[in-house]
Design brief:
This protein has one domain. It contains four helices and no strands. The N and C termini lie far apart (about 55 Å).
Length: about 90
Amino acid sequence: MSQKSPSRPMVILGKMLLFAQERMAKALGPRRTEEVLRSAMTHLGDRRLETPQDLLELAKFMLSAEGLVKSVGESLKAQALLRGANERN
């Protein structure tokens, strides 16, 4: 007899996205994290987010939201910049 496995947050490959996903899950919870990431990946294109610049793009997408999602986006933006991303105008 098999038991239903517990619901887990989605996992998307990419070093920076995995970092962001962990941070987001702590602040937003797994369900909201999944919703935000699905929307972000649709906006950014389904691709691996490997570099600090990729993390910055995700953070900028999140900054267009409101509330806690925006706050997490600000934190991820700071992390991206500290890791070497460059803001482009």
